[in-house]
Write a structure and sequence with these properties.
214 residues; alpha+beta; Ribosomal Protein L22, Chain A; 12 strands; 36% strand; 4'-phosphopantetheinyl transferase family protein; P-Pant_transferase_sf; transferase activity
Length: 214
């Protein structure tokens, strides 16, 4: 995994079949999907206003068939002042991002929606440790569900996450073979937690930082 300050046009043509490009960028919720459309346009060689999206039955956006359907898949997530966009060929990536913050209801939420082992591990932590650990579990689960093409309605209890915080492992995914999935923690900063997931073999993750306009 490498991090660079770049512009999409310089790297879009170098999206390899064995890679996943992940872009990190500043974000304001008033922008809506504008940054996503601009990024997809760079990879398609089109202006942002020409990018056409459709949504799956579960609300996941994808490229319309007019864009050489299947050219690549993408996913994005935003939290507070940051966003992540993942782009790949041949697989469907899922990415999730959360800004670190206090979660006084982390344990009640975990007891209700997580598995018993996951909630038990959170109970052993101090409040400060628990806030980060809770979001690490949450983003890992969300990334898998987004790669699956499902939302929270699928049920957070139907998948389990194990391993170390910096190297999460999908232990169980109801109705699927968990060992056929890849799950990675994204190295961001002390204020953000991010995760990337996909079904398929290992790939090289390229983490790019969107360069500011001059």
């Amino acid at each position: 995994m490498t991090t660079h300050s770049q512009t999409p046009a310089k790297v879009a043509e170098r999206l390899g079949d064995d890679e996943i490009h992940v872009w990190r960028l500043a974000y304001d919720h008033h922008q809506g999907r504008a940054p996503l459309l601009a990024m997809l346009g760079a990879y398609l060689g089109l202006p942002a206003e020409a990018v056409q999206l459709e949504e799956s039955d579960h609300g996941r956006p994808h490229l319309a068939p007019a864009h050489h359907h299947g050219a690549f898949a993408f996913n994005w997530s935003h939290s507070s002042d940051q966003a992540l966009i993942a782009i790949a060929r041949g697989i469907v990536p899922g990415v999730d991002l959360e800004r670190l913050r206090a979660h006084p209801r982390a344990l009640p939420i975990a007891r209700r929606y997580f598995g018993p082992e996951e909630s038990a591990s959170l109970e052993t932590l101090t409040d400060g440790q628990r806030d980060r650990a809770f979001l690490e579990l949450w983003t890992a689960k969300e990334a898998v569900l987004k790669a699956l093409g499902r939302g929270l309605a699928f049920g957070l209890h139907r998948l389990s996450i194990g391993g170390l915080p910096e190297a999460p492992v999908l232990g169980r995914l109801e109705g699927h073979e968990a060992d056929q999935w890849q799950l990675h923690r994204l190295a961001l900063d002390e204020h953000h937690v991010g995760a990337l997931a996909w079904q398929g073999g290992p790939r090289r993750i390229r983490l790019w930082t969107l360069a500011d306009d001059p």
